[in-house]
Design goal:
38% of the residues lie in helices and 4% in strands. It has 3 helices and 2 strands, in the order αααββ. It has helices spanning 5-14, 21-42, 73-76, and strands at residues 83-84, 87-88. It has a two-stranded antiparallel ribbon. A hairpin with a 2-residue loop joins strand 1 and strand 2 (87-88). It is elongated and about 70 Å long. The model has no long low-confidence stretch (mean pLDDT 89).
């Protein structure tokens, strides 16, 4: 698929990008190559192939959730640098 300079300029405007004329021509070539490669991928027969959910073969080791003891709120606040009755006090991050 051929991408023309007007399309590159329109996409650049929408993405708030600025190119000089040489940069726009490079971007046009790159975008054309990407779309040509994507067309080649569309020609590959993928029937019967499961989609990937991850590129890693690692498996998460999860533990079973168990209900256990928890600290009462007054003991949980004992070592808090700043507290206000039943709550931790933290620095303000939003105005």
């Amino acid at each position: 698929m051929k991408v023309d300079l007007n399309t590159v300029k329109k996409i650049a405007h929408l993405a708030r990008l600025e190119f000089d004329e040489a940069g726009a021509e490079r971007m046009q070539r790159d975008m054309t190559q990407i779309l040509d490669w994507e067309e080649q991928l569309n020609e590959v027969d993928t029937d019967g192939i499961e989609p990937l959910t991850t590129m890693s073969s690692e498996v998460n080791v999860l533990r079973e959730d168990k209900v256990g003891e928890h600290l009462p709120h007054d003991k949980g606040l004992l070592n808090a640098p700043q507290k206000d009755s039943d709550y931790f006090r933290v620095p303000k991050v939003l105005e």
